[in-house]
Amino acid sequence: MKTQLRLMFRAGLIGGLIALHLTLVGMVEALNKREIIEDIITLGQLLLMGVGLGTAVYALGKLPRERRTQREGWWVALGAVSVVALILGLLALAIKPLNLRFMFQNASPALVRILTFDTPGVLGLVKLWAFLLFSGALALVYLYIPQPWDRTLSYAVGITLLMGILRALVAPLLPDIISDFLFTPSGLTQIGAVILVVLWVLFLHYWPDFKARLETWQKEAQTPQGAPIRRRLNIAFLVAILVLLLLPAILRDKGSYLFEVLDMVGIYIIMGLGLNIVVGFAGLLDLGYVAFFAIGAYTMAVLTTPELPFVRQYIPPMNFWEALPIALLLSLVSGILLGVPVLKTRGDYLAIITLGFGEIIRLLVISDLLKPILGGAQGITGVARPTFGSFVVNESWEYFYIILVTIGIGIFISTRLRDSRLGRAWKAIREDEDVAVAMGIDHVSAKLTAFATGALLAGMAGALFSSRLYSIAPHSFNVLISINVLCLLIVGGMGSLPGVVVGALALVGLPELLREFAEFRLLVYGAALVIMMLYKPEGLWPEKARVSRVAREVFGDRLKTLKVE
Amino acid sequence: MWERLRYRLRYVSGTDVALWIVAALLLVMITVGSYNSLTSGRYTGKQWFDFIISGLAQGSIYALIALGYTMVYGILFMINFAHGEVFMSGPFTAYFLAEVLEQRGLFETNPWLALGLVMLLSMAVSTVVAVSLERIAYRPLRGAPRLVPLITAIGASFFLQYTFRGLYTPGFKAYPEVQPLKGTWTLFGLEIQRMLIAVFVSSLLLLLLLYAFVQFTKVGRAIRAVAEDQQAAALMGVDVDRTISITFAVGGAAAGAAGVFYALMFRQVNFFMGFFPGLKAFTAAVLGGIGNLPGAMLGGLFLGVFESLGPSLFLEGLGVPAAYQLKDAIAFTMLVLFLIFRPTGILGERLAKRA
Amino acid sequence: MALLECQHVTKRFGGLVAVNQVDLQVEPLSIHSVIGPNGAGKTTLFNLITGFYRVDEGSILFEGEPIHWLSPTHIARKGIARTYQNIRLFGDISVLENVLIGMHTHLRSWVFEPILGIRHFLDEERQAYKRAMELLEYMGIGEWAFFKAKNLPYGQQRRLEIARALALEPKLLLLDEPTAGMNPKETEETMALIKRLRDDFNITILLIEHDMRVVMNISDIVTVLDYGEKISEGTPEQVRSDPRVIEAYLGRGAATAMAMATSSTAQGD
Fold first, then answer.
1. Which of B233, B256, B296, C108 could make an SS bond with B66 (beta carbons 3.0 to 4.6 A apart)?
2. Do residue A553 and residue C126 have CB atoms under 8 angstroms apart?
């Protein structure tokens, strides 16, 4: 009994502290403006619900499996949630009499109204309690649903809510009639939510069958008689790619905001691919990575803008394609130049040195010293846009194609290098530099090549960034960019290429689509870094021990006789 | 002859040569710049003196923060990147107490008491933040590869920054003025701002106190024992977890005190105030030889003075416009140069166990 | 001419003289063992030969050329490969790639060849993969090729480390306590393996051991170090009967001798 009580309070206190943090930091209030399901639940409430659910799951997880569905499980889970309710209730009661707002900017009457569901007096507190009890009970209900349906149902609900949250992404993809029916300007309609849940349940339920059939097809296609199937699969694949490629052009009117976001995601993917070579492959933690991004962006801007009279005395403004190779070359060279001094240092010192370099470069850019060349704190406007003959790339969806091509090149380079002699040298240095050197690897040139390749990609991203934004200012190049890129690598999984894409979509795409959330972006990034390091240091999409293309070709069927992890 | 030379130079590589050339160039630039400035007579002796005093005051604050970096590094071999945020959390929270006390007039009637209360709260908050940081984020990662705790610390740093931003507004808050510390004192015929002297002297006292704590108390001995060899210390009956917590607490308290001094000197607090002082204090710790307490103090003072003199002394002498803008750049250049050329610092790393 | 020659090599750490005026001559195609109690300076000697420590005094010649002023990379390229007492594999990458990294110095490609997919590069890679697999199979761990190295069982990790060193095609192979942590049967097998290595690959082997009984059967020459100094050298029989060796090993009381016999896994030097 005593251990259960302790567990209940422990879970409740952890949940309560998290809930307090979320409310006082202002996240609940900010997200409360978004109604996810019309008149039913807002994003802020969903957040609190998540805390309640999480608390109950945590408490239940500490119990032995067979005791979870007994009375004990109910008591512990609901008790823990009640502790959370108590803490939040106390907060709601204390805000006014203690004038908490003097200190905590978010402890406002509006927050009290959110916590008590617009109901004054005791009834409001009861409502809060009931709400949290309900969210905790969801965890218990899950335990009672029979096997295949528990997952199906919870995934369906989860995906539906996600669609509501990412309305800005999903709604423009659908025809107007359907999206008007399913979506409100901020989230889902009630009927829409129900329909989506049902559809997703059906889809998820039949998905295993469908997948099995796909797999048998694929197997048949491998056999000598499978040529027609193979041809059909290839055609389907090509059509899918074509549709994906044409999608921006089709959606350009409706989804201009969407493409602004996707452009940003794409630029981060390019940077992520570059940093992945430096950190993920070669293991050199570079916190000044933004410097190369800045060098690419500034080179492009300085060379193409009609402003900056000091520079224009000597060089006439160039066009995009003339400036691009110079920008790439400069970032490459700067990658080598900044690489040389840090060659001798390792690990954490390297991280700090590169951070220092990044900051020095930023300070130099905003200083008056280089103002005639770099435009000082105001930055530079009038950066050239890419042209193809007389066609000028202007819109964000048009840029998206260029970015897509660059990403393709980045991925191509990364995969080719990963399985080469150079890539193996990088990995050896990452794993154990002393041994790598004892194997005859020239760590100096290997590291410099890593820095140079990474810098090249960052410079490319920078050049595209400045051209796409038409103007640049030094504050876009602070250390937070480096942290962003590092963060998306770590969340996706260091060294993993799909991880870069997943990380960029999750960490750059999601916050852009959730404008209310933008303010808390770095808060969440910080928390994500800590949580990933504590619980899942290999990332969401880690790299497996792969069989490279050459290995498949050389060993062929023999691979099947080998042990697999 | 050639053989002998080659033998002597056997461990010198091309990169070494390139780096030494860069270093020599920088030294030449500093010398030329300083010579130009000093001969041009743009600043009077009094002004140089003021630069040095304010550098010392600023440097003593760096030294207090650096203490936390250096002690944690000494024990865990990790850079507690979030230490700058520990430094920020104290004074930012204590601002609200200061505001209340100001409204109640305590800063008028009994400024020392008011200052003491603010200081106490600030130190308490920073200590709590530092200790919980260790408990929640760092302790589970002991023994992980070196980069893992560093990345965690970076994450914690941003988490704390934006937590406090969310809690207490993103804007700047102005600390109340302390009457007795306004104006100037005349020492040896020179006018000196009272605030600078007060900050300098009290930081120095605090530093000595903390140094004595580590050097002469039983707990301090335990800290040094754990820094020397964790396993051996554990076998000798030292509670390693508790000792590490105490180390973080001491570092946090020092940072909290430093935070109040900083807030009094610059009269404003903000959620971002910890980032640059934190980096600079780390520079100070590296300058003095990381893991080395007296080194951190000297490193802090040296960095403070260097940074305060630098812009006027050698940057203006080289004809750089608005040189004060590059004050931070000087500190970071020092950081980079020291990490590259002499990562063991001026005094040498007390704990030469770096892998 | 000796393949490797150490002349009056001295290394100091502060006040401690870890290796003191040691002379060593390793004859081509011999199996030469360096033995000595813990802390005798054996691993330090290896680190001096492979260039990880700077030689304070004296010189090291490989095939008659001084190598003590070269960087570890260049020493490896001259044809000296080593293993480590506490196995140091590239843990997070596959077993096959570990061996491929060992072949680094024998491959030529760098940045552009793989990106452009030049045929010469692809051929070279195919050859390398085949050779790496052959080496793994020679060491009896071919079936593990696509495991992450850190997930191998202990004994296989030792074998992989040797395979990786062999991939360098060294003239001289330095083995640092290759039997550490093994039971008597495994030790026996490893010794047989080392003998086979010399004959199959035509290499010279310099071996560190800490338990002298282990190396007696396979060594041509045994050098005994104690407190950084060479106290004896000769054939196993000569060394075994040398009173100074007996004193070094047994003169410190039964407790030390016991500890030596049982704690061969302990990290020393």
1. B296
2. yes
Domain boundaries, given as residue ranges, for chain A: 2-144, 255-551
| B125 chain-A contacts, CB cut-off 8 A | none
Each residue's pLDDT, cut to its tens digit, for chain A (565 residues) gives: 788 889 999 999 999 999 999 999 989 988 888 888 888 889 899 999 999 999 999 999 988 888 888 888 888 999 999 999 999 999 999 988 888 888 898 888 889 999 988 888 889 999 999 999 999 999 988 888 888 888 889 999 999 999 988 888 788 778 888 888 888 888 899 999 999 999 999 999 888 888 888 888 777 776 667 777 778 878 888 888 888 778 777 777 766 778 888 899 999 999 999 999 999 999 999 999 999 999 999 999 999 998 888 888 888 889 999 999 999 999 999 999 888 888 777 778 888 889 998 888 888 888 888 888 888 888 899 999 998 888 888 888 888 889 999 999 999 999 999 989 999 999 999 999 999 999 999 988 999 999 999 999 999 999 999 999 999 998 888 888 998 999 999 999 888 898 999 899 988 888 887 777 888 888 988 999 999 999 988 888 887 766 788 888 888 777 777 776 6
Q: Check A551 against C115: CB less than 8 A apart.
A: no
Phi, psi (deg, nearest 5) at residue A201: -60, -45
B-chain residues within 8 Å CB-CB of A523? 158-159, 162-163, 165-166
Beta strands C221-226 and C31-35, pairing class:
parallel
- Tell me, yes or no, if B11 comes closer than 8 A to chain C by beta carbon: yes
Quote the CA–CA distance of C62 and B41 in Å, as a whole number. 63
Q: Which domains does chain C have, with CATH numbers?
A: 4-88+169-262 (3.40.50.300), 90-151 (no CATH)
What is the DSSP track for B196-249? Answer: HHHHHHHHHHHHHHHHHHHHHSHHHHHHHHHHH-HHHHHHTT--HHHHHHHHHH
Q: Does C231 touch chain B (CB under 8 A)?
A: no
Mutation target among C13, C54, C69, C90 for the B interface, most CBs of B within 10 A: C69
Any B CB within 8 A of A448 CB: no
Tens of pLDDT, residue by residue over C175-204, are: 999 988 888 888 888 889 999 999 999 999
User: Looking at the partner chain, which of A24, A490, A523 has a beta carbon nearest the beta carbon of B151?
Assistant: A490
- Interface check for C113 against chain A (CB to CB < 8 A): the answer is yes
Q: Which CATH architecture has domain A255-551?
A: Orthogonal Bundle (1.10)
Interatomic CA distance for residues A176 and A182, integer angstroms: 10
- Residue in chain B lying closest to C54 (CA): B11
**Angle at the Cα of A324 (from A318 to A327), degrees rounded to 5?**
100
Report how far apart, in Å, the C-alpha atoms of A134 and of each of A20, A49, A87, A139 are.
19, 8, 17, 9
Domain parsing of chain B, residue ranges: 59-273
Q: Using CB atoms, list chains with 3+ pairs below 8 Å to chain B.
A: A, C
Do A427 and C92 count as a contact with CB atoms less than 8 A apart? yes
Which tokens belong to B266? 């610059």
Largest CA distance in chain C: 66
Q: Structure tokens of A528?
A: 């994500």
Contact list, B340 vs chain A (CB under 8 Å): 341-342, 344-345, 353
> Residue B315 belongs to what H/E stretch?
none
Q: Is the pTM of this model over 0.95?
A: no
C164/A contact by beta carbon, under 8 A: yes
CA of B315 vs chain A CAs: smallest distance (Å): 10
Contacts of A203 (CB under 8 A, 6+ apart): none
Residue A15's CB is within 10 A of a number of other CB atoms, namely 27
